[in-house]
Structure formats: C-alpha cells, structure tokens
Design goal:
Elements (H helix, E strand, L loop, with lengths): L33 E4 L4 H12 L5 E4 L9 H4 L7 E4 L2 E4 L1 H11 L10 H35 L7 H22 L12 H15 L9 H11 L5 H4 L18
Helix pairs in contact: 1-3, 1-6, 4-5, 4-6, 5-7
C-alpha cells in the first residue's frame, strides 16, 4: 500500500490533526542514517537499492503506518513512505531521494552524464512509478497483500486479474527495450533498472511474475537480482505473507 502518489492510492491517515509540519529541508545534528520504510513498498525498495549500491550504511526502521502510534505524519506531512533521515534532514519522495544520493555519492553513478540520457532514465522511472504502479503494483499488492496485513477484508479477484493481465503489456515493453539495450535505459545500469526491479520484486515476492513470458526480461532481472545491493531485499519477510519459494533464489 504505502505508495508515494496520493492519486494512485497512497495511504491517507485517518486523523488530520496536526500541531505543525516537519521542515523537510532543515538539518539538525545527527550521525545515524535511518530509512523509515515498509518491506514490500516498491518506493522504499528503490531507495534501499540505491543506498546499498552506494554502500551507504543505513538503519532500516519499519513504519507500520496502518497501526496506532505511527509517526508517519510527523516525519512527512504527505503521509507517505519512504522517509530518509540523513545528516539530520528528513527527506521524502523516492525519486528525489535517489537523485540526491547519486549527487552526494557519485560513484557508482546511477544517472548518466548527458542530459538526453538522464531524461531517458527519468522517463522510465516515471513509467514504473506512475503507470506500472497504477496498473499493476498497486492493485495487485493492495488486494493480495495489504488487505490481508491490514485486515481490510477479502481480495477483489477482478482487480487482481486486471492487474496481472496488465503486466504483460509492461513486460512486452521491457522486452522491446532490452532487445536493443543491455539495460533498460541504455548500455549501463541506471536508476531506471532499480526502479523497475523494485516494483517487480514486490510482485515476485508473491509469485505474480511469469518469468517464462520473456527471456530478455528474465535475464535482465537475474542480472540485477544477483547484485550485492539486492541481498537485503531477498531477505525480507512480511509477517503473515510468506515469500514465493523461488523468491530468494538467484537461479529461477
């Protein structure tokens, strides 16, 4: 559930009472880097991948935002995860966080040097964070995972079916890109690959990706899944929702 974009079904806390808003760009002394996250949020996973790829040590703090006592609104008045606390700052919005991290820790680079190439990376990040999320990740994960975790009733099979049907269009699109490129946005791995992998890994956790559908996409995911940055994601376990048997296997 804990997606970032309100128009795509972001969690909206029931209470709207606030005594003040946190200043997202105001720093205060602190040496510990913390990421407030939830395990099967693609947006949180995207930031985790970037942090791990750049070998930035971070303390992961799960925010079960649907339970009483969550401080999500204090950390981010938009009521969305992830939130990164770094150098005393509270930072929200996964794309902004990832690009910030890439600027302050340039190596290994996840954004190309040329403007046209950076445009392509950002375009594909938007494709997955907006279109793929709206058509596939959000409806499938909401019905199959979050309703169970939050005790919101039974899944709507029609919604799940529509989401799983839509994924084939996206796999076809990825296949068309990978037929001419080594990675999604070009010949080097970029933030676009991490963004796509963050969404697909959530669905793979519940075995909702048919990897036999496209050899190109399967090989791409195998490459990115085998990176050291992916290890913490493969160790995730959401209480009450068990991962698919193949989820943590590099040979799938």
């Amino acid at each position: 559930m804990a997606v970032e974009t309100a128009r795509h079904g972001a969690y909206q806390p029931k209470t709207r009472e606030r005594t003040g808003f946190p200043l997202m760009n105001t720093s205060s002394p602190s040496s510990t880097i913390r990421l407030y996250h939830v395990a099967l949020s693609p947006f949180c996973r995207k930031v985790r991948l970037v942090l791990a790829e750049k070998r930035i040590e971070v303390e992961l703090v799960e925010d079960r935002f649907w339970e009483p006592g969550s401080e999500i609104l204090r950390r981010n008045p938009a009521g969305k995860l992830p939130v990164l606390r770094m150098e005393g700052r509270l930072m929200a919005e996964s794309q902004a966080i990832c690009e910030y991290l890439d600027e302050i820790q340039p190596q290994p680079s996840l954004m190309p040097a040329l403007p046209a190439e950076r445009y392509e990376v950002r375009r594909l990040c938007a494709w997955f964070d907006d279109k793929f999320n709206a058509e596939v990740t959000r409806p499938v994960m909401t019905e199959r995972v979050w309703k169970k975790v939050m005790r919101l009733g039974y899944p709507d099979s029609r919604t799940v079916k529509a989401g799983l049907s839509a994924i084939r269009y996206h796999l076809d699109y990825m296949k068309s890109l990978l037929e001419h490129r080594r990675w999604l946005a070009g010949d080097v791995m970029t933030l676009a690959d991490f963004t796509a992998a963050a969404h697909l890994s959530c669905l793979d956790y519940i075995s909702d990706v048919d990897w036999t559908y496209s050899t190109e996409v399967q090989e791409w995911y195998a490459k990115i899944k085998s990176r050291p940055a992916f290890r913490s994601l493969l160790a995730d376990h959401l209480p009450g929702v068990h991962p698919a048997p193949h989820y943590a296997l590099l040979d799938f």
